[in-house]
Amino acid sequence: MGDERTLMLQRFDFSSESVSEGHPDKVADFISDSILDACLTQDKASRVACETMVKSNCVFLCGEISTRANLDYEKVVREAIREVGYTDSSDAFSADKVFIFNGLTKQSPDIAQGVNAAAADGKMSSEQGAGDQGIMFGYACKETPELMPAPVMFAHMLTRHLAKLRKEGKVKWLRPDCKSQVAVRYEDGRLAAIDNVVLSTQHSPDVSHAEIREFCIEAVIKKLLPAALLHDKTQYFINPTGRFVEGGPSADCGLTGRKIIVDTYGGWGRHGGGAFSGKDPSKVDRSAAYMCRWVAKNIVAAGLASIVELQVAYAIGYPNPTSINIDTFGTGTVDDSKIIDAVKAVFSFKPSDIIRQLDLLNPIYRKTTNYGHFTKGDLPWEQINQVEPLRKHV
Question: d(Cα 318, Cα 132) in Å, to the nearest integer?
């Protein structure tokens, strides 16, 4: 890569994981984002902070929503579960059988006062403020076409492909819950090899472990991952417990926001801690993280650095970031201070401006939920469209 880790270690392994849409935490994320999109479809001014918990045959909705939308929450939840693939009536967790508990309330007026673009007693600005304090990171590198770290992109490839095969009905024994993990070896800052792959997939009870292992290695891993990186000593851990029949929320509790590293950079780029799913763009946990990714990607695409990590911080109710920091890990073609100056000249990090620049008041969030929020080229924050303004300013 070229950042401080590669300078310290000439040879090392780095692992990242991915989970499928059938993983319990991702089921919860998808329900939350489905509710968000349903609100924004009817009312773009909706304030949504929807948290979901799924377990056994129950779905619990909690959080705060203020909207003019008229929603059938039960219908939204059941359609989301059905889309994921939990439709077998013999399972405890099934779209038409789950019990749904709605504990949603309205947004606190104290928080709304800070977010609204209006003056208020004690508020430092009449502009729209950040919905909370916090720090957000964005990252980009030249390692993959998506300008993402390779380990997490490799991991997403595997889970995404298993879901595709399952939904197409091509492999009858596949079930919705699956996980992957890929360990990539780096030597002198370059991708050198894949040393091991972990792939666990839920399955029907009538298939043997030997069949699952052969299929996962030959038809999934070796088909998708770069052949030049796989080698004779690559280890394959396929359903390492030997059996994975019971899965999803029937086997494990799922919570919104518990897979934030899967959602971002697989642990290679830093994460501020705030989750994304279920939050409307007035919440900087989500919108500012998207903003930072957009800026980072354009910096790398502009040739100003091979690697860049961007951090911004906010105070609740205040529009301007309390700090902005950029680190190119020694790969910048100009001084980092000049890149920061260019970023501040080209981009605005005020919450209202982030929403405007990225056009975030649209129901686009269900498509972000699975396989990474920074891996899909059609999303606004993945666009490379500010290269020339950045170059011009530098």
Answer: 9
